[in-house]
Specification:
The complex is a heterodimer of chains A (239) and B (106).
Chain A lengths: L2 H10 L1 H20 L4 H10 L3 H12 L4 H12 L1 H9 L8 H9 L3 H13 L4 H25 L7 H18 L4 H21 L3 H25 L11
Helix pairs in contact in A: 1-9, 2-4, 2-9, 2-10, 3-9, 4-5, 6-8, 8-10, 11-12
Chain B lengths: L3 H24 L5 H7 L1 H15 L1 E2 L2 E2 L9 H14 L2 H18 L1
Antiparallel strand pairs in B: 1-2
Amino acid sequence: MKIETIKSGVKISSPVIISYIALGIACGVVLYDAGMSVLGIGIMSLLVYAGAAQFLAASMIVLGASIPSVIIMVFFLNLRHVLMSASLSSFVKERSFGFISLFSHVLTDESYGLNYTKFREGNWSTDEAMAMSLSTYGTWVMSTVIGGAIGSQFQVNTVIMNYALIAMFACMLVLQFVSREHLIAGIVSAGTTVLLMVLFKHNISLVIATVFASFVGYYLEVRKNRHTKPEFEGSNEIE
Amino acid sequence: MNSQWTLIAGMAVVTYIPRLLPMLLLSKKEISPSFSRWMTYIPVSIFAALVASDIFFWNGSFNVNPGINIKLVPSILVFLVAYKTKSLLWSITIGLGGITLLWVLL
């Protein structure tokens, strides 16, 4: 990997890196308070690398939940990565098993959002994608360890730091409105998510809403194509 | 905590499988045009779900009172800025500025 590649990869991730430092420290603090050692926190961030799951684990342990119940909740929380992993698969066709093994491990909501947005813009190589993802990975591991080591002497406003990431996703969302059908899919997904979250109070709502809304968007597109051009074949020029 | 290694191992397995398998299996396959058309609706739906599951909730409950849920007003600004500038950095800056201001004021 060339230095230029690493530089351009890392440049893109700077907003995520800043948020990960703050959220990572906060996550390290709560994991330490939940009874984990600093070494354990570091190994967890290396092997699990999922912020929401690590926060969830900390709060469940404090509430006295059993280990299996935490693991099951984490599984459902992270099912959304199935869709992200599938969505990135078309960009890594040329890459080896080793590359995909590591690249998929460093897939988070944020790295997915950045990489998908950049791949779609074009001139974004898989090496840049890897460099970018590894920079946020390294940041997360180090920040959680620092959080665990300094303990609760350091206060982070997680509402505000988390909102930096939400603002980023909101912008990525707007960039995805490439057709009327995509706009409708977004609105359907948002509405369904809120409805299911209110009903079930569980993050699996995001996965169900995403699958449902993507089918709605796809159905509308198929219907439109059937009406406008009956002989449509390979009309993949929409983007 | 003695059981932290069991916890880490379990979490690592259930986190890695959903991340690895779809990318690994689908990248080795020829994907049908209709499947890849459907896949173009996944990102927009994911981002909408991530944003909606966050901004309409305050302390874990549905809340659309802009005086309490201070994420709502900045979010409108972020959408406008994102639409006008198409810039991640501007969106984050305006969003952070907005929510920090409300946090201090309210």
